[in-house]
Amino acid sequence: MSALKIKKGATSHSAYNLRPAFSETIERHTLAVVVGNEPGVLARVIGLFAGRGYNIESLTVAEIDHEGHRSRITIVTTGTPQVIEQIRAQLGRIVSVHEVHDLTVEGASVERELALMKVKGTGDKRVEAMRMADIFRAKAVDSTLESFVFELTGTPEKIDAFIDLMRPLGLSDIARTGVAALSRG
Fold this sequence. Notes:
alpha+beta, Alpha-Beta Plaits
């Protein structure tokens, strides 16, 4: 997946701006971090982001090797290329971190997210919600006379698009898992 690029305003070229002329382009990156599955590791990783003012757009954590006591943390974050490289380097210095991979620059990857969405409505809105769910291949996992709970798996962009369509139809609650990602091949 290529980096999402968002241009910032032009940089000032004044004598007071002594920073090097690094790229001001903000990119979205998906990082896969393999860590020891032990108390406090997630707190140290999150503390790195919080302490330096880096944003986390998505965070998922799960054990991947029960016998080896290892977990995988998938983090979606944004920043300039220099900030992303700094994040990678600082993650690599944490004692319990075994591997850090930037899936965005290491080649093609697959990203998926799971979302549950409650849509309340009757009549035509109910029919339209079911029609849209069918188009997006969302599955109704719960149904009452007044609402549905839909399950949808896909890219974050697909889930965002479905949410936007469900809002006028009675979307009342959303739960999202965050991005899970693997490199291809």
